[in-house]
Amino acid sequence: MSEPSAVGLELDDIQRGVLSPRPTPYAAAYLAFRIDDREQGRELMRRVSGAVTSAADAASPLGDAWVSAALTCRGLEALGVPAASLDTFAWEFRQGMAARAGALGDVGDSAPEHWEAPLGTPDVHVVITAIAPDSPRLQAAIERARPAYDRLPGITAVWRQDCYALPTETEHFGYRDGVSHPAVEGSGIAGSNRLEVPLKAGEFVLGYPDELGGAQTPQPAALGRNGSYAVFRKLHQDVARFRRYLRDNSTGPEDQELIAAKIMGRWRSGAPLALAPEHDDPALGADPHRRNTFQYQRDDPIGFRTPGGCHIRRANPRDAAVAGEVRLHRMIRRGAVYGPPLPDGVLEDDGVDRGLMFAFIGAHLGRQFEFVQSEWLNDSVFFGGGDGKDPVTGSQDGSTGFTVPRRPVRRRLAALPRFVVTRGGEYCFLPSLSALRRLGGLQE
User: Fold this and answer.
1) pLDDT greater than 50 at residue 316
2) Where is the stretch described as Disordered (predicted)?
3) What pLDDT score does 61 carry?
4) What is the C-alpha separation between 262 and 239, in angstroms, rounded?
5) Other CB atoms within 10 A of residue 60 CB
């Protein structure tokens, strides 16, 4: 549980989408806009500041519906934010995700030239996100935001992605998703791992002390404080290829599920191998109070239960001995699926686009999202694993396999193809509510 803290987060000025876990189930929509007229862009900010929900409005972690608003660096430029101010923002944000493709492993089919238009181009300025427990309430949330952009001819809608989370919380590969989230000092929201000490607020909200004792704040402070950075990524999942890989590398259905668990670090029910190493435990996987409360170093330092190269141990090594301080790289992660599921048992692709809309929230794009993506997911040096990549989401090229530690002889799986392809994404800034109003009042 979150420990008492002297940090006084100004929750009424922080967007709710920064700190609040999403409900289960839920429906969501990402709406992207281009600002063609500066003054109407500022009017959009004035209007949207009244539609965005603050973190103080969250009656419970499940809450109701809410709306968030984010801007790319090109969006801030379009509003007329001075260059001297923009220069104080994270340099990764100023470059944009497309320019960072090489560092992120977005190459080959994932390269920006193959992205879904207009993602990764200068045409994406504002991203409005609506979240609600179901489709009718999602539509009501969108209607709440619609006056902010409707009947503004200088604002052009350029992209929309609808997505959802099922009551089972599963994504298209069949795993329970959204299991892990950190506790943030001062938020009043408990983390999912009761063994993890809450992280400093400045790891996620700008203007507060972080784990290193500093406080990152874009200038002027009235613009940067209480804001956060957001990463949005559309990730296509090749479900048929994933299923064929499990089939071709297993001795039967039970072995398929074991391999699926070993490459993820969890059974598809959500039960972690750390707590259920031999057999799945669906009751454990469904229990939010138990399924994420574990560490690695004491019980499994070598990875006989949870392989060092599996997805969840790469994305969050917890207390494992790795290169780097784990707490400096923790993220708030949100995921929602898009597209219809591939029917059970189908092993050939049906041509339908399906995947995951990934969202990262944090105050440090470089040492949080980019570090984890480049150093932990797409490399293995940090835990002494050679040149392997994340078996589920890594930028595989078919040259490396996956090793399952076991006694007396480790098990080697065949070379991994790429199961997840980037369809596009953006680096965004989530301003505080007062900063949204400030952006609406900018003068030439």
Assistant:
1) yes
2) 274-308
3) 37
4) 17
5) 10
- Locus of tokens 């989370």: 165
| Identity of the residue numbered 292 | N
Residue 41, sorted as left (phi over 0), alpha (psi -120 to 50) or beta, turns out to be: alpha
CB 378 within 8 A of CB 389: yes
CB atoms within 10 A of CB 298: 8
CA distance 315 to 67: 28
**Residues 88-146: tens digit of each pLDDT:** 999 999 999 999 999 999 999 999 999 999 999 999 999 999 999 999 999 999 998 99
Beta bridge partners of 321: none
Q: N- to C-terminal Cα distance for the chain?
A: 48
Average pLDDT of the residues in 203-214: 96
Q: What average pLDDT does the structure give for the chain?
A: 93
384: exposed, middle or buried (C-beta count within 10 Å: 0-12, 13-18, 19+)? exposed
Assign residue 80 a region: left if phi > 0, alpha if psi is -120 to 50, beta otherwise? left
H-helix or E-strand spanning residue 35 = strand 26-35
Give start and end residues of each alpha helix (H) in 80-130: 83-86, 91-95, 101-104
CA dihedral 312, 313, 319, 324 (to 10 degrees): -110
Which whole-number Å values give the CA distances from 28 to 65, 271, 276, in the listed order? 10, 26, 33
Provide the β-strand partners of residue 162.
29
pTM: 0.95
> 420-430 and 228-237 as β-strands: parallel, antiparallel, unpaired?
antiparallel
Model confidence at 258, in pLDDT bands (50, 70, 90)?
very high
CB 391 within 8 Å of CB 416: yes
On whether the CB atoms of residues 56 and 12 are closer than 8 A, the answer is yes
In DSSP notation, 306-370 reads S-TTSHHHHH--TTS--SS-GGGG--EEEEEEESPPPPTT--S--S---EEEEEEEES-TIIIII
95, two tokens: 């470059």
Phi, psi of 245 (to 5 degrees): -65, -45
Find out whether 394 and 311 touch, Cβ atoms under 8 Å.
Answer: no
Distance CA 421, CA 389 (A): 14
CA dihedral angle for residue 215, residue 211, residue 101, residue 335, rounded to 10 degrees: -110
